[in-house]
C-alpha cells in the first residue's frame, strides 16, 4: 500500500480533502458542539478530547510505524502528573495549608511525615518548566525505552507486552510511593492555574477551547509528519522493514522518533486532562486504560488521523450513554467492539468512510480525487514480525 | 536482621523459603504453560488467558457445590473430577473461540491481542452477570488443607505439594505430547514452516484448533488448582495477566524449556527479594529486572531458529 | 443508570407492601423515644418554598436523593452491599411517611470503579438532578475525586466506608469509622487479653493500610510498650504470600495485624492456612475483613481470627435483629451484612433526622444541624454525629466462626470520639 504523493504535496503538506476534513472537525468541535451541548456535556467532550491526543499518537506509531504500544497510559500519566504537580504546588500555598505541621507542601506529603518538598517537586513551581516537562519528560522516557528496544529490533508482540509491563510497574510505583505521588488517591483538589480558578464553568469552557486548539495543532503536526518523507519511510518500514533497512535507512531511529512523538502527544493529552478534570490518579496509567486508548484508535481507523479523533469521541460517548442506561451491558458492548473492529472493519470508521461514503461524495466536491482508487485492503499488513527480527 | 536467630532456625527458614520459591515456580509455570503453547505455536497472545483460568475456577466451584449437595461422601476426591471438567470446559470454549475468531487473524498477531482483550471483557461481564459480582469461596476437601510438619519449624504445605505435582505432571504430559507423539511432530512442523507443513498433508487448521484448545484447557486446570491459593471472582483473572505474559515472553516464544527456565528465574528472584525487601519493592524490582533483561536480550532466554 | 426507584424489582407489589409495613414497625418506637418528630413539622407538610430555598429537587410530595456507587468494574463486589442498604433505608423511611412529609425518590448512578466517572456523576447529580443529598462512594480515591465537586456545588455526601481519616469537610458526613476509632481500642484489647507485645503489620500497598499501620505502629510503640517486628505492603491484587508467611514464622510475632484487601485478601488467608498457621493459636487481628469478605475467603480459612469493626451481623440487640431481618427479606436469605453495609444504612436515616431537625432541605442548614444528631435505632446501637461530621461509635472485636459469622468478644463500654486528625499519631 502506498500513499500517493501528488506533486502539490511537495509545496504544501495538506491535500484539499484533508483541509476539508480538518475544517469540518474544527467546525464540529469549535462551533457545533459548544452550541448544541450544555456546559456539563461539553466538559465531557473536553475530557474525551484529551484521550484523542493519545489516539493521534497511536495512529502515527501504530498505524504508520507498526509499533503497538500497550503502555501509552504511562505517557498520558507522566504528562498529567507533571501538570498536577504544578497545580498542586499552587494549591498548597502556605496560607491554604496552614493547619498542616509543615505548611506549604502538598497535603498528602504532610500526612506521610514528609517535612520538606522533595527535590524533584521543586522545579514544578515554575509554569514554564512544567510546560516543558509535560512534553520533554515523556519523550525522554520514551527515548530510553525505544532506544533499548528498537536498536535491538524488538518489535510486535514483544514490544506490546513490555510496554504493558512498564505500565504495571509505574502504577505500582506511584501507588507505593504515596508520600511523593499521592498514592492511589492521586493528586486531587487542584484549584487554580496562575491564580485563575480552573474549577468554574467558564474556566472549563475556556479550557475546552484551549484543548480543541491544541488538538487541531497536533493534528496539523501529524499531517505534516505523515506527508513528509519521514512519514513515507514509516509506512514503508511497516510494510517491509528489511527492505527499508537494506536501502540504507536507520530503521530504529525512525521508530524511536515516532515513539517519542507519540509519547509527547499523549502527555499533552494527560496535561489537558488534569486541567479539565481537576485531578490525576494512577488509574489512568495502568494496563486497562492503556489498552482502552488503543481501541479508540482502532475504532476510528488506525490509518486515519481524523478517524482516530472521531473514534475516541464515539467510543467515549457510547461508554457514557451506555453506562448511564445499561451499566451491565457496557462491558459486553466494549468487548464486542474490540472484536468487531478487528474482525469486521479493521480500518475502523475511516475505512468504512473511505469504502462506502467517500466514493459517493467525491463528485459533490467538484470531482476532488477520491483518496484511494481502491478501498484499502481489508486486512492491513501484519504489523511487524511476530518475533523480533533478530530471530531470523 | 538475622543476628537474633539460632542457626537451626535460620536453616529451616531457608529451607522453607526455598520451598516457597518452588511453589511460586510451579504456580508461574502452571499459569504460563497454556499461554506459552498458544504463543509458541501460533504467535497469538491470548489476553483472555486469565479469564479462561477463572472459568476453570468456577467449574471447580460448581463441582464442589454439586458434590456437597448430592454426593457428600465423595467430596474428598471431587477436586480431581473438577480439574478434568475444567480442562474440557475451558478447552471446548477455547476451540470455539479459535474457530469463531482467532483463525481469521493468524496473519495479524497484534490484532489477536486486541480481539482477545475484547473477549476477556465479555467473559468478565458474563461471569458477573451469571455468577454474581461477589467472589465465591471454594471449599476444599480437608486432606488438601494444612501442612505436613517435617521438623518443628519446617512445614510443607500440602496444597503447595499438590500444585507442584500437578505442574510436573502437566509439564511432562505436554513435553511428551509435543516431542514424542506424532501430533506433537505435526505441531512443531507447523511452527517451523506452516506452508510446507500444509503441503505435506498436515491439516494445519486442525492442528491450530487443537493447540489453542489444549492451551486453554491447561489454563482451566491451572485456574482450578489456583482456587486453593487465590480468589475466584469475575475480575480475579486480571491478577495473573502481567506475571503470566512476562514469564512467557521472558522465556522466548517457541520453547517449553525456555518457559520453564523463565518461570524458575522470575519466581526465585521474586521469592528471594520478597524475603529480604518489602513486598511492593520486590515486585517492582522483579518486573524491572525482567524488562531490562528483555531489552538486552529481546528474544528471551531460549529461542529456536525459525524460518519466516 | 438513571432508572428511578427500580429497587427490588423482583418483589411483587403485595410483597412490597408487606415489606414496607414490616419495615416500618421497628422504626415506630424510635419516633416516640427520640422525640424528634413531635414538632409540628411532622404533623403537617411544610411548604416547599420554606424548606427548600436553594432550588433542590424538592416538590410538595417528593424529595430526590442520589445513590452513587460502582455497579460495574472491580469495586462492584464491595459496593453492592452499600447500595442495598441505602435502598432499604430509603424504603423504610418512605414507609413511615418520608422526610418532612415528602417521599424520598432516588436516582442511582454508576461510578463504574472509575474515579473521574465518580466526579462526573456526582456533578450530574448535583447540577442536573439537584439532589438534596447523595449517599455514595466507597474507596478513598473515589471520595477524594468527588470531594471538590461537592464543595464547589455545595452538595451533601454520606460516605459509608471506614477510612484513613485526615479529612473533614462541611459537605461530607462520614458514617464509617476513621482510623483511630477502628485501631486503638482493638490494639488495647489484644494487648490486654493476649498480653501481646510484638506485632507483625501487613497490608495492601495504598493509603488506607499505610495510614492505619502508621497509627497502629505509633500506638504499639508509644502506648503499649510493644514492638513492631515487621511491616510489609503488597501491591493491590498480589496473590503470592508464601515468602512473607515464612518471615512471619521466623519472627514469631504475638499478633499478625493485617489490612490486606480485595483478591489479595483471599490469597493471603488461604495461604496462611495452608502454611499451617492455625488462627486459633496464632492471634491474627485484622481491620479489613467483614462478613462480606469471608464469603470469598471461605469460613474455614478464616475461623479463629479476630476482626476489629464497629458492627457485626451477629450483634445481639433488637435494632440489629430488625435490621438483619428486613435486609434479608429485601435482598434474600443468603446475603451477608458487613460493617460498611451497616454504615451505609445509617446514611439516609441520619440525613432524614438532620433534615427534620433543621426543618429544611438546604445543604447549609443540614451541614450546620448535623452536629449532635442522634440515631438510637442504629443497628450498631446508639450513634451520634460529632461536630467534625464523623460518628461517635463503639469499637468491637469479633472472632470469626466457621459459618462466616463473628462472635463478638469485646466492645468498648463507651462510644469512641472520632478524631480524623489524631495528635501524636501522624
TrEMBL record, chain A:
Coiled coil: none annotated. Keywords: Cell membrane, Membrane, Transmembrane, Transmembrane helix. The gene is urtC. InterPro entries: ABC_transp_permease, ABC_transptr_urea_perm_UrtC, LivM-like. It comes from the Bacteria. It holds the Pfam family BPD_transp_2. This is Urea ABC transporter permease subunit UrtC. It is a multi-pass membrane protein. The keyword Transcription does not apply. Residues 372-392 are annotated as: Disordered. Its main location: membrane. The chain crosses the membrane at residues 20-37, 49-71, 127-150, 157-176, 206-225, 246-273, 293-317, 329-353. It is found in: Cell membrane.
From TrEMBL, chain B:
It comes from the Bacteria. It is a multi-pass membrane protein. CDD domains: TM_PBP1_LivH_like. The keyword Transmembrane applies. InterPro entries: ABC_transp_permease, ABC_UrtB_bac, BCAA_transport_permease. NCBIfam families: urea_trans_UrtB (TIGR03409). This is Urea ABC transporter permease subunit UrtB.
Automatic annotation (TrEMBL), chain C:
InterPro entries: ABC_urea-bd_UrtA, Leu_Ile_Val-bd, Peripla_BP_I, TAT_signal. Residues 1-43 form the signal peptide. Keywords: Signal. It holds the Pfam family Peripla_BP_5. The keyword Magnesium does not apply. PANTHER family: ALIPHATIC AMIDASE EXPRESSION-REGULATING PROTEIN, PTHR47628. This is Urea ABC transporter substrate-binding protein. The gene is urtA.
Amino acid at each position: 500500500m502506498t500513499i500517493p504523493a501528488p506533486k502539490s504535496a511537495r509545496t504544501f503538506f495538506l491535500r484539499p480533502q484533508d483541509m476539508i476534513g480538518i475544517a469540518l472537525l474544527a467546525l464540529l468541535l469549535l462551533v457545533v458542539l459548544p452550541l448544541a451541548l450544555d456546559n456539563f456535556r461539553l466538559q465531557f467532550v473536553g475530557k474525551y478530547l484529551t484521550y484523542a491526543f493519545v489516539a493521534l499518537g497511536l495512529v502515527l506509531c501504530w498505524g504508520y510505524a507498526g509499533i503497538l504500544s500497550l503502555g501509552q497510559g504511562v505517557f498520558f500519566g507522566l504528562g498529567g502528573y507533571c501538570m498536577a504537580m504544578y497545580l498542586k504546588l499552587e494549591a498548597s500555598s502556605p496560607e491554604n495549608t496552614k493547619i498542616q505541621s509543615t505548611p506549604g507542601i502538598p497535603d498528602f506529603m504532610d500526612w506521610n511525615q514528609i517535612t520538606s518538598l522533595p527535590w524533584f517537586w521543586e522545579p514544578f513551581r515554575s509554569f514554564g518548566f512544567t510546560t516543558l516537562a509535560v512534553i520533554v519528560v515523556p519523550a525522554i522516557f520514551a527515548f530510553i525505552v525505544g532506544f533499548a528496544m528498537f536498536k535491538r529490533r524488538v518489535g510486535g508482540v514483544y514490544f506490546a507486552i513490555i510496554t504493558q509491563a512498564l505500565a504495571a510497574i509505574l502504577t505500582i510505583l506511584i501507588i507505593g510511593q504515596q508520600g511523593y505521588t499521592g498514592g492511589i488517591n492521586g493528586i486531587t483538589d487542584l484549584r487554580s492555574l496562575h491564580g485563575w480558578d480552573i474549577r468554574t464553568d467558564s474556566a472549563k469552557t475556556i479550557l475546552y477551547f484551549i484543548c480543541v486548539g491544541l488538538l487541531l495543532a497536533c493534528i496539523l503536526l501529524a499531517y505534516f509528519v505523515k506527508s513528509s518523507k519521514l512519514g513515507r519511510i514509516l509506512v514503508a518500514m511497516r510494510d517491509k522493514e528489511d527492505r527499508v533497512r537494506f536501502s540504507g535507512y536507520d530503521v530504529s531511529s525512525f521508530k524511536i522518533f515516532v515513539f517519542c512523538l507519540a509519547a509527547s502527544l499523549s502527555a499533552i493529552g494527560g496535561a489537558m486532562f488534569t486541567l479539565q478534570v481537576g485531578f490525576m490518579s494512577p488509574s489512568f496509567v495502568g494496563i486497562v486504560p492503556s489498552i482502552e486508548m488503543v481501541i479508540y484508535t482502532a475504532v476510528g481507523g488506525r490509518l486515519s488521523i481524523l478517524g482516530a479523533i472521531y473514534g475516541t469521541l464515539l467510543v467515549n460517548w457510547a461508554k457514557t450513554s451506555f453506562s448511564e442506561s445499561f451499566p451491565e451491558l457496557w462491558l459486553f458492548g466494549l468487548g464486542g467492539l474490540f472484536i468487531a473492529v478487528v474482525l469486521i472493519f479493521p480500518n475502523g470508521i475511516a475505512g468504512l468512510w473511505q469504502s462506502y461514503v467517500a466514493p459517493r461524495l467525491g463528485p459533490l466536491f467538484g470531482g476532488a480525487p477520491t483518496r484511494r482508487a481502491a478501498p484499502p485492503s481489508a486486512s492491513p499488513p501484519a504489523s511487524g514480525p511476530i518475533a523480533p527480527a533478530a530471530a531470523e | 536482621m538475622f543476628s537474633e536467630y539460632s542457626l537451626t532456625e535460620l536453616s529451616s527458614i531457608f529451607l522453607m523459603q526455598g520451598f516457597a520459591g518452588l511453589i511460586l515456580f510451579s504456580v508461574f509455570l502452571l499459569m504460563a504453560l497454556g499461554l506459552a503453547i498458544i504463543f509458541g505455536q501460533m504467535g497469538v497472545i491470548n489476553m483472555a488467558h486469565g479469564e479462561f483460568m477463572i472459568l476453570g475456577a468456577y467449574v471447580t466451584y460448581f463441582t464442589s457445590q454439586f458434590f456437597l449437595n448430592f454426593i457428600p461422601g465423595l467430596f474428598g476426591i471431587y477436586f480431581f473430577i473438577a480439574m478434568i471438567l475444567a480442562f474440557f470446559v475451558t478447552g471446548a470454549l477455547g476451540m470455539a473461540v479459535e474457530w469463531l475468531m482467532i483463525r481469521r487473524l493468524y496473519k495479524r498477531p497484534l490484532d489477536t491481542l486486541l480481539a482477545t482483550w475484547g473477549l476477556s471483557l465479555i467473559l468478565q461481564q458474563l461471569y458477573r452477570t451469571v455468577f454474581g459480582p461477589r467472589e465465591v469461596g471454594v471449599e476444599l476437601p480437608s486432606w488438601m488443607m494444612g501442612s505436613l510438619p517435617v521438623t518443628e519449624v519446617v512445614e510443607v504445605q500440602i496444597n503447595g505439594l499438590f500444585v507442584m505435582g500437578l505442574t510436573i505432571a502437566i509439564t511432562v504430559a505436554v513435553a511428551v505430547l509435543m516431542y514424542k507423539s506424532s501430533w506433537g511432530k505435526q505441531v512443531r512442523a507447523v511452527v517451523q514452516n506452516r506452508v510446507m507443513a500444509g503441503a505435506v498433508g498436515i491439516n494445519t487448521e486442525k492442528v491450530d484448533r487443537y493447540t489453542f484448545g489444549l492451551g486453554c484447557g491447561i489454563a482451566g486446570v491451572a485456574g482450578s488448582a489456583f482456587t486453593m491459593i487465590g480468589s475466584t471472582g469475575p475480575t480475579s483473572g486480571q491478577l495473573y495477566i502481567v506475571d503470566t505474559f512476562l514469564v512467557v515472553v521472558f522465556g522466548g516464544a517457541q520453547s517449553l524449556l525456555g518457559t520453564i527456565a523463565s518461570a524458575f528465574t522470575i519466581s526465585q528472584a521474586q521469592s528471594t527479594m520478597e524475603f529480604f525487601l518489602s513486598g511492593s519493592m520486590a515486585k517492582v524490582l522483579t518486573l524491572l529486572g525482567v524488562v531490562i533483561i528483555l531489552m538486552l536480550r529481546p528474544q528471551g532466554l531460549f529461542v529456536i531458529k525459525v524460518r519466516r | 443508570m438513571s432508572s428511578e426507584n427500580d429497587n427490588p424489582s423482583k418483589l411483587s407489589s403485595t410483597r412490597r407492601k408487606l415489606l414496607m409495613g414490616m419495615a416500618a414497625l421497628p422504626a415506630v418506637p424510635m419516633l416516640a423515644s427520640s422525640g424528634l418528630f413531635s414538632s409540628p413539622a411532622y404533623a403537617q407538610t411544610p411548604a416547599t418554598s420554606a424548606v427548600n430555598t436553594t432550588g433542590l429537587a424538592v416538590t410538595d410530595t417528593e424529595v430526590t436523593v442520589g445513590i452513587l456507587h460502582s455497579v460495574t468494574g472491580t469495586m462492584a463486589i464491595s459496593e453492592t452491599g452499600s447500595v442495598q442498604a441505602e435502598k432499604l433505608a430509603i424504603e423504610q423511611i418512605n414507609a413511615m411517611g418520608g422526610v418532612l412529609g415528602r417521599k424520598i425518590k432516588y436516582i442511582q448512578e454508576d461510578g463504574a470503579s472509575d474515579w473521574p466517572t465518580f466526579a462526573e456523576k456526582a456533578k450530574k447529580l448535583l447540577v442536573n438532578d439537584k439532589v438534596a443529598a447523595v449517599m455514595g462512594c466507597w474507596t478513598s480515591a473515589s471520595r477524594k475525586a468527588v470531594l471538590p465537586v461537592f464543595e464547589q456545588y455545595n452538595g451533601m455526601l454520606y460516605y459509608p466506608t471506614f477510612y484513613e481519616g485526615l479529612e473533614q469537610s462541611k459537605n461530607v458526613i462520614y458514617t464509617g469509622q476513621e482510623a483511630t476509632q477502628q485501631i486503638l481500642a482493638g490494639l488495647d484489647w489484644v494487648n490486654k487479653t493476649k498480653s501481646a507485645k510484638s506485632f507483625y503489620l501487613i497490608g495492601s500497598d495504598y493509603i488506607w493500610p499505610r495510614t492505619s499501620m502508621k497509627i497502629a505502629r505509633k500506638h504499639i510503640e508509644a502506648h503499649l510498650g510493644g514492638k513492631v517486628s515487621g511491616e510489609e505492603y503488597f501491591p493491590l491484587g498480589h496473590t503470592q504470600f508464601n515468602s512473607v508467611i515464612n518471615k512471619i514464622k521466623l519472627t514469631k510475632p504475638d499478633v499478625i495485624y493485617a489490612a490486606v484487601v480485595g483478591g489479595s485478601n483471599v490469597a493471603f488467608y488461604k495461604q496462611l492456612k495452608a502454611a499451617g498457621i492455625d488462627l486459633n493459636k496464632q492471634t491474627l487481628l485484622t481491620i479489613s475483613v467483614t462478613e462480606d469478605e469471608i464469603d470469598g475467603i471461605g469460613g474455614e480459612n478464616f475461623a479463629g481470627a479476630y476482626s476489629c469493626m464497629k458492627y457485626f451481623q451477629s450483634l445481639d440487640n433488637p435494632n440489629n435483629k430488625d435490621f438483619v431481618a428486613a435486609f434479608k427479606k429485601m435482598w434474600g436469605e443468603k446475603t451477608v451484612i458487613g460493617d460498611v453495609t451497616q454504615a451505609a444504612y445509617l446514611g439516609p436515616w441520619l440525613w432524614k433526622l438532620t433534615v427534620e431537625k433543621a426543618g429544611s432541605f438546604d445543604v447549609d442548614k443540614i451541614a450546620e444541624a448535623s452536629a449532635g444528631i442522634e440515631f438510637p435505632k442504629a443497628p450498631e446501637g446508639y450513634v451520634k454525629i460529632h461536630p467534625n461530621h464523623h460518628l461517635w461509635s463503639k469499637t468491637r472485636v469479633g472472632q470469626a466462626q466457621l459459618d462466616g459469622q463473628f462472635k463478638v468478644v469485646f466492645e468498648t463500654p463507651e462510644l469512641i470520639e472520632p478524631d480524623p486528625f489524631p495528635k501524636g499519631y501522624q
